[in-house]
């Protein structure tokens, strides 16, 4: 099963690391082994300063989004949560989900904690200044854009890429999973990274 799914992952490799919510499910899974995207960063959570380096030794599932996202974030986090729920306890202790808000004006620590905890206890919500978030997004090739909403109480939405970034326990960005990647493929990608020497 694992080998078959990994073969599918390899067959679906894309040359473009920039993925949007409009991508077809499963049309772009990129193995970034040896590429230059990714890197360490420091932002803040409700527990204080947070650095990606703190998660060395764990597989990290990194996602850029915002708490008022109407559909893309909830569906992506639901699939991620389904994959996490299938992990054995020992595996789950080696995996951490990380949600970076691209809407720091509205997403305070309490809003982030409430949001990520709704989906799974192994998710951490982090934020920072607009400049800090832009810098981290650039590291990972993530894109987002504030879009005004006329006649809406929310005033604006944030269009954003909907990629899940899988980072190895050594801190290396290894896989880009597009929006609507099935939870079974997320699960097998996690287990693949956990099994690597």
Folded structure, characterized:
With 197 residues, the protein is of the alpha+beta class. It has a single domain, classed as 3-Layer(aba) Sandwich (Glutaredoxin), CATH 3.40.30. It has six helices and ten strands; from the N terminus they run H-E-E-E-E-H-H-E-H-E-H-E-E-E-E-H. It has helices at 2-11, 72-86, 89-92, 109-119, 130-140, 183-195; strands spanning 30-31, 42-45, 48-51, 59-65, 95-101, 123-126, 144-148, 156-160, 164-167, 173-177. The protein has a six-stranded mixed β-sheet, sandwiched between helices. The two termini are 20 Å apart. Mean pLDDT is 85; it is low at 1-29.
Quick summary:
The chain has 197 residues and is α+β, with helices and mostly antiparallel strands. Helix content is 32%, strand content 24%. It has helices at 2-11, 72-86, 89-92, 109-119, 130-140, 183-195; strands at 30-31, 42-45, 48-51, 59-65, 95-101, 123-126, 144-148, 156-160, 164-167, 173-177.
């Amino acid at each position: 099963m694992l080998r078959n799914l990994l073969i599918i992952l390899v067959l679906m490799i894309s040359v473009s690391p920039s993925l949007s919510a409009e991508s077809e499910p499963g049309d772009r899974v990129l193995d970034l082994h040896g590429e230059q995207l990714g890197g360490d960063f420091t932002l803040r959570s409700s527990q204080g300063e947070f650095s990606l380096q703190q998660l060395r030794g764990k597989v990290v599932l990194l996602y850029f989004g915002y708490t008022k996202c109407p559909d893309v974030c909830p569906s992506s986090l639901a699939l991620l949560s389904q994959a996490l729920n299938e992990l054995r306890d020992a595996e789950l202790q080696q995996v951490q989900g990380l949600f970076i808000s691209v809407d720091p004006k509205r997403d305070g620590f309490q809003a982030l904690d409430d949001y990520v905890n709704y989906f799974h206890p192994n998710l951490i919500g982090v934020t920072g200044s607009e400049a800090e978030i832009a810098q981290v997004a650039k590291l990972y090739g993530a894109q987002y854009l504030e879009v005004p909403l006329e006649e809406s109480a929310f005033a604006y939405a944030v269009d954003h890429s909907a990629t899940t970034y899988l980072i190895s326990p050594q801190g290396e960005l290894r896989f880009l999973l597009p929006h609507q990647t099935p939870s079974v493929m997320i699960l097998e990608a996690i287990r693949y990274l956990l099994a690597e020497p």
